[in-house]
UniProtKB/TrEMBL annotation:
Residues 156-511 form the Aminotransferase class I/classII large domain. Its EC number is 2.6.1.2. InterPro entries: ALAT1/2-like, Aminotransferase_I/II_large, PyrdxlP-dep_Trfase, PyrdxlP-dep_Trfase_major, PyrdxlP-dep_Trfase_small. This is alanine transaminase. PANTHER family: ALANINE AMINOTRANSFERASE (PTHR11751), ALANINE TRANSAMINASE (PTHR11751:SF29). It comes from Linum tenue. It comes from the Eukaryota.
Length: 532
C-alpha cells in the first residue's frame, strides 16, 4: 500500500478508494437498465433478489477513484445535510445557522459584485437596451461605452456564439494590455488562452504534461487540491515539496532541489514546478528575491513553471506586494528562450469574487510553436470558454480608470472589499492564536487561514478508534457542535504528524463575532474533554 502525502500520515491509497467506493454507491451508480427490467419481469415466481450493482472498478478508471477534492468533501456533505435538517426541523440542532468557512466563494456569503462589471455584462448580453433612451439613466456612461467597444470586438456582436478557441481576439488584446500595464513588460495576445476559470487551464496543462505515472510535478504541500486531483486524474505523480510553517510558509529552493533529486532517483521525470502565489491554503506572499531564485531553479533544471496567480489582487499587508513570475523572469533578462512559464489568472478571486461566471486565462510563454499547436488543439477540443467569462476577464484586467464616470464608485467598492477582507483575516488570526494549542501564520494574502492544532494524544486515539484522520475528527466535531464549516488539513497535505484546518476569511463582518465565539467555546470544551 502506497503512502499518500495528501491523506496525511495515516491515509493510504486503499483507504482513499474505499471512501470513494462508499460514496459512489450511494449516489449515482444505478444498475444498467436491463438489470432493472429483468428484476421486475417475473409474475409467478418470487421476485429474484435485486441484482448486484455493477462492480465499481471496471466502471471507473483508477485515477478517478484516486482523485480527492477536500474543499467539497465529507465535511461539506455533512454541512449540507445539517442545513436540510435545520430547514426541516428548526431548533433541532445546537445552532441556528451553518457558517460556511470552507471554500473561496465570496458572493455565496453575501459579497456584492462590482457594479461596473455587472453593468457591462448586462449590456453585452442584451444589447437591445443600448438603443433605449432609459439606458443613459440606468447605466454609467463608461459602462455603455465599454459595452459598445466589446460588442464591436465580437463577431456579429453575438455573445451566444462560439468564439475562437483561445478567446475573442479583441478581449485578448485588452487583457494583454492589462498584463503589460501591471508588469511593465510586453504581453502577446496570442499567448493568452481564455478559459472557464483557472481550473480548466490547469487541467489542460496536466493533459499536456502528463503521459504516465513516471511524469511528475513538484507541488507545494500544503497545496490547493485542484493540483493533487488533476495530477491523479491524469495519472501522473505529485512530487511534494514542503512549505516551511516556521518561516510563515516559506518556499525554500533547497527543499525544491532535495525533492527533485529524490524524485529523479526514483526514475520520475519531473516536468514542472507548481507555485501558488499568494498561497492557498497558506496565505503567504512570496518575496521578489525568493521568486528570482525559483525562476533560476526552473531555468537550470529545465522545468515548466506553473504559476498560479489567481490571488494576485488579494494582498493585505503593506510590507508585501504581488509580483507576477513573468515580470520577475523578464526583469532577470529571461525571455521565451530561457523559461517555459504559464501564469493562471481567474475572475473568481481578487476583490470581484465572480466564481460562478467562470472566467480566467492562462498566459503561456516560452514553448516551441509545435507545443503551442498542441495546447491550441487541447483548447479547441472544448470549442471555447463561455463569453460572459471572457468579457469579465477583460474587465478585471482593464477596470475603470481615473476620469471615467465609474472610477470613484468602482474604487470605493474595491477598496471596501479588500480592507474588510484584511480586517476579517486579522480578527480570525488573533482569535485562533488565542486558543490553547493553536498556532496560526498571518494571511498576508489570498482568502484563508491555515491554523495548526496540537491535538492531545487522547483526541488522536479517539480519532483512530473512529477510523478518522485526527483533523477530520476535530472538524467534524466542530461542525456538529457549532455549524462552523472548515476543511481538515489532510485535504491539502501537511507534514506527517501535524494537524491543521483551513478557514476562509470570507464570511461577512457581522458574522465574524459569532464564528469566533462558537469556535472558542467549542475548542475549550474539546480540549477539556481530551486533555492528556
Ligand atoms: C489557488 C487556486 N487556483 C485555482 C483555483 C480555481 O479557481 P477557478 O477555477 O474558479 O478560477 C482556485 C479556487 O479556489 C484556487 O484557490
Amino acid at each position: 500500500m502506497r503512502r499518500s502525502v495528501i491523506g496525511g500520515a495515516k491515509r493510504t491509497t486503499t483507504t482513499t478508494c474505499l471512501f470513494l467506493l462508499n460514496h459512489a454507491h450511494h449516489r449515482s451508480l444505478l444498475p444498467p437498465l436491463h438489470h432493472r427490467l429483468d428484476s421486475s419481469s417475473s409474475c409467478d415466481s418470487p421476485p429474484p433478489p435485486p441484482p448486484l450493482l455493477p462492480p465499481l472498478l471496471p466502471t471507473c478508471r483508477t485515477p478517478v477513484l484516486k482523485c480527492e477534492y477536500a474543499v467539497r468533501g465529507e465535511i461539506v456533505i455533512l454541512a449540507q445535510r445539517l442545513q436540510e435538517e435545520l430547514k426541516a426541523k428548526p431548533g433541532s440542532l445546537p445552532f441556528d445557522e451553518i457558517l460556511y468557512c470552507n471554500i473561496g466563494n465570496p458572493q455565496s456569503l453575501g459579497q456584492l459584485p462590482i457594479t461596473f462589471f455587472r453593468e457591462v455584462l448586462a449590456l453585452c448580453d442584451h444589447p437591445a437596451i443600448l438603443d433605449k433612451a432609459e439606458a443613459q439613466g440606468l447605466f454609467s456612461a463608461d459602462s455603455i461605452k465599454r459595452a459598445w467597444q466589446i460588442l464591436d470586438q465580437i463577431p456579429g456582436r453575438a455573445t451566444g456564439a462560439y468564439s475562437h478557441s483561445q478567446g475573442i481576439k479583441g478581449l485578448r488584446d485588452t487583457i494583454a494590455a492589462g498584463i503589460e500595464a501591471r508588469d511593465g513588460f510586453p504581453a502577446n495576445p496570442n499567448d493568452l488562452f481564455l478559459t472557464d476559470g483557472a481550473s480548466p487551464a490547469v487541467h489542460m496543462m496536466m493533459q499536456l504534461l502528463i503521459g504516465s505515472e513516471k511524469d511528475g510535478l513538484l507541488c507545494p504541500i500544503p497545496q490547493y487540491p485542484l493540483y493533487s486531483a488533476s495530477i491523479a486524474l491524469h495519472g501522473g505523480s505529485l512530487v511534494p515539496y514542503y512549505l516551511d510553517e516556521e518561516t510563515g510558509w516559506g518556499l525554500e529552493v533547497s527543499e525544491l532541489k532535495k525533492q527533485l533529486k529524490e524524485a529523479r532517483s526514483k526514475g520520475i521525470t519531473v516536468k514542472a514546478l507548481v507555485v501558488i502565489n499568494p498561497g492557498n491554503p497558506t496565505g503567504q506572499v512570496l518575496a521578489e528575491e525568493n521568486q528570482r531564485a525559483i525562476v533560476e531553479f526552473c531555468k537550470q533544471e529545465g522545468l515548466v513553471l506553473l504559476a498560479d496567480e489567481v490571488y494576485q489582487e488579494n494582498v493585505y499587508v503593506p510590507e508585501k506586494k504581488f509580483h507576477s513570475f513573468k515580470k520577475v523572469a523578464r526583469s532577470m533578462g529571461y525571455g521565451d528562450n530561457d523559461l517555459c512559464l504559464v501564469s493562471f489568472q481567474s475572475v473568481s478571486k481578487g476583490y470581484h469574487g465572480e466564481c460562478g461566471k467562470r472566467g480566467g486565462y492562462m498566459e503561456v510563454t516560452g514553448f516551441s510553436p509545435e507545443v503551442r499547436e498542441q495546447i491550441y488543439k487541447l483548447a479547441s477540443v472544448n470549442l471555447c470558454s463561455n463569453i460572459s467569462g471572457q468579457i469579465l476577464a477583460s474587465l478585471v484586467m482593464s477596470p475603470p480608470k481615473v476620469g471615467d464616470e465609474s472610477y470613484e464608485s468602482y474604487s470605493a467598492e474595491k477598496d471596501g472589499i479588500l480592507k474588510s477582507l484584511a480586517r476579517r483575516a486579522k480578527t480570525l488570526e488573533d482569535a485562533f492564536k488565542s486558543l490553547e494549542g493553536i498556532t496560526c501564520n498571518k494571511a498576508e494574502g489570498a482568502m484563508y487561514l491555515f491554523p495548526r492544532i496540537k491535538l492531545p494524544e487522547k483526541a488522536i486515539k479517539a480519532a483512530e478508534a473512529a477510523k478518522t484522520a485526527p483533523d477530520l475528527f476535530y472538524c467534524r466535531r466542530l461542525l456538529n457542535a457549532t455549524g462552523v464549516v472548515v476543511v481538515p488539513g489532510s485535504g491539502f497535505g501537511q507534514v506527517p504528524g501535524t494537524w491543521h484546518f483551513r478557514c476562509t476569511i470570507l464570511p461577512q463582518e457581522d458574522k465574524i463575532p459569532a464564528i469566533v465565539s462558537r469556535l472558542t467555546a467549542f475548542h475549550k470544551s474539546f480540549m477539556d474533554e481530551y486533555r492528556n
